[in-house]
Amino acid sequence: MCKGLSIALLCAALWGLWVAPTAQAQEHGTIQALATVVSSLNVLGVNNLNFGTVTPGLNKTVTRTTVGLAGEWEITGTATAEITLDFTLPNNLILPDSSASMLIQFGNTDAAYDDGSGGGQLAPSAVINPNGPITANLGTGGQMNVWIGGTVRPTISQTGGNYAADIILTVAYTGS
Questions:
Q1: What's the CATH code of the domain at 53?
Q2: 3-state helix, strand, coil in the chain (%, to 5)
Q3: Cα separation of 106 and 111, whole Å?
Q4: With contact defined as beta carbons under 8 Å apart, do 123 and 132 qualify?
Q5: Is 20 a member of any domain?
Q6: Please, are residues 142 and 119 in contact by the beta-carbon 8 Å criterion?
Q7: How far is 27 from 138, CA to CA, in rounded Å?
Q8: Are 145 and 120 in contact (CB under 8 A)?
Q9: Which of 141, 144, 139, 142 is nearest to 169 (CA)?
Q10: Does some domain include residue 14?
Q11: Which of 28, 32, 88, 97 is 20 to 30 A away from residue 172, measured at CA?
Q12: What does the pLDDT read at residue 116?
């Protein structure tokens, strides 16, 4: 009888081990995935680069500081964000019917910007080269103004008419 009782106790003990939950120490930690999306950039052309009346054979220059005639853009975005400024510059101004063109050139100091830390168009924050991309920061208010000048070079036999070409300023966040 002892033998049967021993087997029953042994079976009960093994059954208890099998069905009894095992206690284990468990710890965990939680984090969040976060991202701040910067506000979109807004680039607004507010003034055309205007050479006015040009005389055949006489070059005419409009400087970046010529108020009302220099080309101008207003940029708004995230305060102090790093951006690139990249100009697409024409080589020529063209008549609407494409029958004639006039050379236009941009020098290494023909553009400037003010991020609010300078004195505007006449005393900007920086003078820049429009012939290559540059990196800058928006002002503390998230703004920047950019100006551009240039020189047209009409030939002595330049065809009369209204010449034009697009100047494009592409602005992008750098992510830095």
A1: 2.60.40
A2: 10, 35, 55
A3: 9
A4: no
A5: no
A6: no
A7: 46
A8: yes
A9: 144
A10: no
A11: 32
A12: 93
pLDDT tier for residue 7 given thresholds of 50, 70 and 90: low
Across the beta sheet with 134-137, what order do the strands follow?
A: 134-137, 82-88, 168-173
CB 154 within 8 Å of CB 109: no
State if pTM tops 0.90: no
The owner of tokens 């680069």 is 49
DSSP 12: H
Neighbouring C-alpha atoms within 13 Å toward the C-beta of 14: 6
Give the range of the structural domain holding residue 139, as residue numbers without chain letter. Answer: 42-173
**Structural domain contains residue 3:** no
Count of all residues that appear for the chain in the document: 176
Domain count, the chain: 1
- In the three-class reduction of DSSP (H, G, I as helix; E, B as strand; rest coil), residue 134 is classed as strand
Q: Is 106 helix (H, G, I), strand (E, B) or coil?
A: coil
d(CA 42, CA 106): 25
* Over residues 81-105, mean pLDDT: 97
